[in-house]
Specification:
This protein is of the alpha+beta class. About 50% of the residues lie in helices and about 25% in strands.
């Protein structure tokens, strides 16, 4: 007999764990979401820059994000993903979890 039946208690902790894992799985961001995140991040950096360089950066944010995503290696852990971008002289690592991205390195 299981311990839940002996004590008459329902295993709420186990149900919460299952629901959390299901939520993590459902909100694991895809590569397309990461490309959109990069594009938005490039536009944010150009915000407030009213020079020609800022205008060009805003216009080219889409193609730049697409090029960066080509060099991106995604590792899928089912409940979260890591995205590694290898740029010349710089290595960036992002964690994708709950439909958000966190820069780790």
């Amino acid at each position: 007999m299981s311990s839940a039946k002996k004590t008459g208690r329902f295993p709420y902790g186990f149900v919460i764990l299952i629901l959390l894992v299901a939520l993590l799985f459902a909100t694991n961001p895809k590569e397309q979401q990461f490309t959109s995140y990069l594009r938005d991040r490039i536009r944010e950096q150009a915000k407030g820059d009213e020079t020609l360089g800022g205008d060009l950066q805003r216009m080219l944010s889409g193609p730049a994000a697409s090029l960066a995503s080509v060099g991106t290696v995604r590792t899928d852990y089912f409940v979260c993903s890591t995205y590694r971008i290898d740029l010349p002289g710089e290595d960036q690592l992002y964690l994708g979890i709950f439909d958000h991205f966190l820069r780790l390195k």
